[in-house]
Amino acid sequence: MTLRVASEATGVPLSTLRNWARKGRVATALEESVEGTHRMVSLEGVRARARQLGHPVVEPGATTPVAPPAATVDVEEVVTPPPGTMVVPIDAWDKMLLQLGNLHQAGQQLADARERAARAETEAAFLRERLAELRATPSLAQEDAGPLLGETPITPDHEPEQPLKMPRFTAYLWRMAVSGRKR
Q: Residue 41 pLDDT more than 80?
């Protein structure tokens, strides 16, 4: 018989029968008809599966579902949680574990970002100190290094050229500090 007829005959919900058929818990067969394809099940197979799981079943000739006798319920299936605990559906548990994993990963990324920010702050402080030192002794830096970048030396036999549009060393240091690039 079809799943719908078996559901009406046994009192087992149609959705439950579909799940059992899909998962192979009840033997099924597909039959073609004028109306389309129907999944067929054995009435006794459905009743046996319902009794095995403890579902109330409408017996032949009865109008209301009959609960299975207490002796057929497996003692191992009835589990009471220990005091102070609660039963949580496995889907909710898995979802909570996934969210906990995501929180842990986000915490790791935040710690890494804080570490990088601290390193960048230390490097910027070092560069500021170095810049202050260079500004404090400009004559020594110019004597040792010659003319600054962008300046053209003036010699008596030489006409001054247009200065090159190159940044000064201090601007270069600031640009490096702000962009965060490493050498």
A: yes
What is the value of pTM for the model shown? 0.34
Phi, psi of 40 (to 5 degrees): -110, 140
Q: Does residue 97 sit within a domain?
A: no
Query: Looking at the 3D structure of the chain, how many domains does it have?
Result: 2
Q: Report if residue 58 sits inside a domain.
A: yes
Cβ-proximal residues to 65 (8 Å cutoff; 6+ apart), any chain = 11, 56, 57, 58
Q: Please tell me whether residues 171 and 123 are part of one structural domain.
A: yes
Distance CA 65, CA 104 (A): 50
Q: Is residue 140 in a domain?
A: yes
Rounded to the nearest 10 degrees, the angle between the axes of helix 43-53 and helix 14-23 is 100
- 3-class DSSP assignment, residue 31: strand
Instruction: Tell me, yes or no, whether 92 lies in a domain.
Output: no
Q: β-pairing, 36-41 with 28-33?
A: antiparallel
Q: What is the largest CA-CA distance in the chain?
A: 125
Give the count of beta carbons closer than 10 Å to the beta carbon of residue 16.
Answer: 19
Parent domain of 25: 3-74
- The burial class, CB within 10 Å (0-12 / 13-18 / 19+), for 160 is exposed
* Nearest-angstrom CA–CA distance, 78 and 95: 25
pLDDT, tens digit (0-9, with 9 covering 90-100), for 110-134? 999 999 999 999 999 999 999 988 8
